[in-house]
Amino acid sequence: MSHKDETVLEVALRAGIKISHTCGGNGTCGTCLVHVRKGLSDVGPRNEIESEMAEDRKFLDEERLACQTPPIQGLEVEIRLKE
């Protein structure tokens, strides 16, 4: 069960799932970018930090920062690992 104000990044790391996050989860590096496969309409709009990054880097609608996205019930994301 997730705690209030947690992010997808925090839940994933606690579960032992590695997601790059070079800025420490502050939304400034973009390395925790995930692809939302299910539940995008329930996540809600991007916050200010994520909106600025998304505009600058031209994210697709379904691309979100794990460090800024709430881990809502039914959310399914794809982590694209860098090689």
UniProtKB/TrEMBL annotation:
Q: Which domain of life is it from?
A: Bacteria
Any one Pfam family here would be: Fer2
Q: Which SUPFAM superfamilies match?
A: 2Fe-2S ferredoxin-like
Name the keywords, alphabetized: FAD, Flavoprotein
InterPro entries, per this entry? 2Fe-2S_ferredoxin-like_sf, 2Fe-2S_ferredoxin-type, Beta-grasp_dom_sf
Q: Name one GO molecular function term.
A: iron-sulfur cluster binding
The keyword Flavoprotein is annotated on this UniProt entry: yes
Tell me the CDD domains matching this sequence.
fer2 (cd00207)
2Fe-2S ferredoxin-type domain: residues covered: 1-83
Keyword Flavoprotein recorded: yes
Name of this chain's protein? 2Fe-2S ferredoxin-type domain-containing protein
Which organism does this record belong to? Bdellovibrio bacteriovorus
